C-alpha cells in the first residue's frame, strides 16, 4: 500500500492511494490515508485536498484476504478502527476535500467520498455498499450523503451499485467527465477553492461541519457495532470465506 501526498505551489495538496490490484486497503492502508489527511489539515500551506487513486478503481473497501488470513479478531478490529480513522480524517480535515473518483468506489470507498466536500467522477465510476454480501455493516451513513433515503436503503439491502452519472441529479456528484480528464476536473474545482483566502475557507469548513444535521462519526460507529455482532455470531467469517473462495476461483480461471 502506498499513500503519497504532494503539495503544489497553488496550495492544492494531492493525496493519492495506490494499492494494486484493486485498491482494497489493508489495516495499515486505512491508517495511512488518515495520517495523510490529518497532516494536510495541520499544514497551513494546504488550502484544499484532492483525494484520488491510481489503478482500475478508486477503492474496493477492506482487504478481505488480509482479514481471512489473520487469526482471531485483530484484523477485524484493525479494519474497523482504520476505516473509522480514515473517514473521520476526511470529514474533519481542516480544509475542503475534493474526491476524484475513477472506476469502482465500493464499501470503504463510499465512506471516504461520502465524507468528502466535493465529488468529481469519471464516466466509468460507480458506487456501492456490498457489505451485506460479506456479513458486515457500515457506510450507510456515508451513502445517505450521496442519495436519498429510500435509494440508500435499496442499494444497501440489495448490494446494487449506482453510476456516478446518476448521482449528478442528486447533487452529490458535481460532474462526470471522461476518465482522462478526471484529474484536471478535480484540480479545476480545487483551484477555485485554493484561490480564496485560506483563513476563510478553514473557517467555512468548520462552520459547515458544525451545522451538519448528522454526526457522521457517531452514526458510523453505531453501524460498526452490528458488524461486531455478526462476527461474534460467525456469520461474517462464513460469508467472507465464500467471497475469498469465489475471488480465488476467478484468479485461476
From TrEMBL:
Superkingdom to which the source organism belongs: Bacteria
Presence of keyword Lyase: yes
Family annotation (InterPro entries): ClpP/crotonase-like_dom_sf (IPR029045), Enoyl-CoA_hydra/iso (IPR001753)
GO molecular function term, any single one: lyase activity
Pfam families for the chain: ECH_1
UniProt GO BP: fatty acid beta-oxidation
Keywords: Lipid metabolism, Lyase
Keyword Lyase: yes
Recorded family membership: Belongs to the enoyl-CoA hydratase/isomerase family.
Protein name: Enoyl-CoA hydratase family protein
Provenance organism: Nocardioides immobilis
Amino acid at each position: 500500500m502506498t499513500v503519497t501526498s504532494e503539495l503544489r505551489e497553488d496550495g492544492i495538496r494531492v493525496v493519492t492511494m495506490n494499492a494494486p490490484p484493486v485498491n482494497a486497503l489493508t489495516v495499515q492502508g486505512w491508517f495511512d490515508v488518515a495520517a495523510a489527511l490529518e497532516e494536510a489539515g495541520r499544514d497551513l500551506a494546504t488550502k484544499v485536498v484532492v483525494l484520488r487513486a491510481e489503478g482500475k478503481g478508486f477503492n474496493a473497501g477492506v482487504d478481505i484476504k488480509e482479514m481471512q488470513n489473520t487469526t482471531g479478531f485483530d484484523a477485524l478490529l484493525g479494519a474497523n478502527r482504520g476505516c473509522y480513522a480514515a473517514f473521520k480524517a476526511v470529514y474533519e480535515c481542516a480544509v475542503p476535500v475534493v474526491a476524484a473518483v475513477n472506476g469502482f468506489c465500493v464499501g470503504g470507498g463510499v465512506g471516504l467520498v461520502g465524507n468528502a466536500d466535493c465529488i468529481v467522477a469519471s464516466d466509468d465510476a460507480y458506487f456501492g455498499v456490498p457489505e451485506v454480501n460479506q456479513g458486515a455493516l457500515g457506510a450507510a451513513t456515508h451513502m445517505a450523503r450521496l442519495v436519498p433515503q429510500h435509494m440508500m436503503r435499496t442499494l444497501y439491502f440489495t448490494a446494487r451499485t449506482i453510476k456516478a452519472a446518476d448521482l449528478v441529479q442528486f447533487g452529490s456528484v458535481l460532474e462526470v467527465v471522461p476518465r482522462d480528464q478526471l484529474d484536471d476536473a478535480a484540480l479545476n474545482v480545487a483551484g477555485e477553492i485554493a484561490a480564496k483566502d485560506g483563513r476563510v475557507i478553514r473557517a467555512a469548513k468548520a462552520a459547515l461541519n458544525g451545522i451538519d444535521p448528522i454526526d457522521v462519526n457517531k452514526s458510523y460507529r453505531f453501524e460498526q457495532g452490528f458488524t461486531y455482532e455478526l462476527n461474534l455470531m460467525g456469520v461474517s467469517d462464513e460469508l467472507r470465506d465464500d467471497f475469498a473462495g469465489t475471488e480465488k476461483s476467478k484468479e485461476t480461471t
